From TrEMBL, chain A:
Full protein name: Thiamine pyrophosphate-dependent dehydrogenase E1 component subunit alpha
Catalytic activity: N(6)-[(R)-lipoyl]-L-lysyl-[protein] + pyruvate + H(+) = N(6)-[(R)-S(8)-acetyldihydrolipoyl]-L-lysyl-[protein] + CO2
Keywords linked to the UniProt accession: Oxidoreductase, Thiamine pyrophosphate
Biological role stated in the UniProt entry: The pyruvate dehydrogenase complex catalyzes the overall conversion of pyruvate to acetyl-CoA and CO(2). It contains multiple copies of three enzymatic components: pyruvate dehydrogenase (E1), dihydrolipoamide acetyltransferase (E2) and lipoamide dehydrogenase (E3).
From TrEMBL, chain B:
Organism of provenance: Azospirillum cavernae
SUPFAM superfamilies (alphabetical): Thiamin diphosphate-binding fold (THDP-binding) (SSF52518), TK C-terminal domain-like (SSF52922)
A molecular function GO annotation: oxidoreductase activity
Keyword Nucleotide-binding listed: no
Cofactor: thiamine diphosphate
Name used for this protein in its record: Alpha-ketoacid dehydrogenase subunit beta
Amino acid sequence: MDALTPDVKRRLYRSVFRLRRIEERLADLYREQTMRTPAHFGVGQEAVASGVCEALGARDVVYSHHRCHNHYLARGGKLAGLAAELYGRIDGCARGRGGSVHLTARDQGFIVSSAILGQTVAVACGSALAFRMDGVPGVAVSFFGEATCEEGVFYESLNYAAINRLPVLFVCENNLYSTESPLSVRQPAGTALTDRAAAFKVEAHQVDGNDVFEVWNAARHAVDSIRSGGGPVFLECMTYRWLEHVGPKFDHEAGRSYRSREELDHWIARCPVRHARERLLAEGLVSKAELDAWSDAVEQEIDDAVATARDSAWPDAADLFENVH
Amino acid sequence: MRELTYAAALSEGCVQAMERDPAIFVTGIAVDYPSGIFGTTDEALKRFGPSRVFDAPAMENALTGIAIGAAVMGKRPVIVHPRNDFMFLAFDQLINLAAKWRYMYGGRAGTVPMVVRAVIGKGWGQGATHSQSLQAPLAHFPGLKVLMPACPQDAKGLTLAALQDDSPVVILEHRSLYGLTGPVDEAPLPTPIGKARIAREGRDLTIVAASAMVVEALRAAEELAREGVSVEVVDVRTIRPLDTDTILTSIRKTGRLLVTDTSWAFCGLSAEVAAVASEKAFDALKGPVRRLAVADCPAPVSEPLEAAFYPRASTIARAVFAMLGKTSAAFDGIDAEDNFKGPY
């Protein structure tokens, strides 16, 4: 297994930083009301996507949920394809048919995301079953929010993966809220989701989902174990969504009161991007000049991708029935 | 040609497809029991073993998602529901994902070549939750193909066609047809999807029927012929895509239409066929379209209630007579004896 070398740390930081800037800038652009698709931005949750995706191999496949931009990008999906999809253009990754919640970058190993809770958890298990049947040493990764642990299909899938020791990595992003509902109305007091997974004989760990190095380490261990036939693993990554459930605003901007400003500030103080950057600087693994150069590169990438997306043609209404069976 | 039962034809279609395509596997509750889903999966298990025919926990929704996930990686899963009604639990995966996959991801995430077999129960007190027939809700959604074989030849042929198709396909099989015998090609000849079958030619009236109602319609047509009435029976075979050309051609030929279905009339297949006739062959119709479907209540259990619930050959024959303005004949004795043995 690879160790958390300086190169890996630098790569992980660049990944979380890139995701952060992309989501922040897309959210800013979203305010212009020209991206006509409900978008669930992942600002604050980058470390889960980056830490897990950077621990995967080329054969592995990733599935995601409604808050999927980070996973798509971290797995290698093209930014221009995401931006064009948000703008409803023909060069969108789903040719303007999917929108923000239905992304695909199959060639990069990001199979799909979908908007219905728990749906792709089962699908990931099916891809893992196919790996098993074909003798392919691939791992299927399922990203989902903690509210998916309230859906029946999640338990059906967990059970099936455990019985058949399928090569699946379940990655639960626990951001404490389902839309605006807190955990207190959704789980009995004292609940640990890792206990639920363990009850199905699935190895389960809780990690700091805002620490990209810790997530990477946990994912790396898990993927190695799964690939060597150890059966599925469940990772609960504790994190926090900074913006409203759907849309580009902070809750306080939108006048929402289900979370306090103090709680948000507490989590902003635990920012996964700043945490990773400070650690690199403290360990002398990066210079200020390098950080600036990386930042410039990301801003340029975003400028270019957004320009490309906006220049992309609209789908032709004559192609409305394209890809109907 | 040699004859097979509908069940043996389903089995043979699956086995021949599996011989040619190693990506096919069969799973679902009880598929590897010795009874082999009423004798339709046991031969496949014997030939291909438990790596390709295997049991599953009771998890209709996840199983459907698992089939999707395997299909997009290049497998060709067949999942089996011994009763239709359990498929409601799988509607999220089937309708929200499998049906939309190819379209919703712009064709960039591949296709979902999976087959869902589901058996419609009838009689012997199967009751409200073991006898439903889900073609209408399934066919409502673009992206699914919905097949209903009514004879052994099509049981095999549509199974073969489904297992060569790149879209998700649902095959609704009728339990009451499993013992039906008929000629079946030995060669693996697929029945074309989207093509109806003229099950009997006639001049005076068209009956469009699906699944087990084709058998009832043919029995009625035979009795009606004795009374001098010539009925054409169109077996739709495929609900989506519906072969409107064959249906409309028959309506234009006879000028009268009766539609009979294994499910309810309201918002159902019979409503769809009636609408097609009204929109596209109104000028050819000599009278109102008539629909015959199950009574508009949940399926009862008790025998006299069940008898009143299901339309049969005699119901169809009487309706045809009425549509033609005739009243004299009695059709009381024409119905097939129900020789189904319980419990399932």
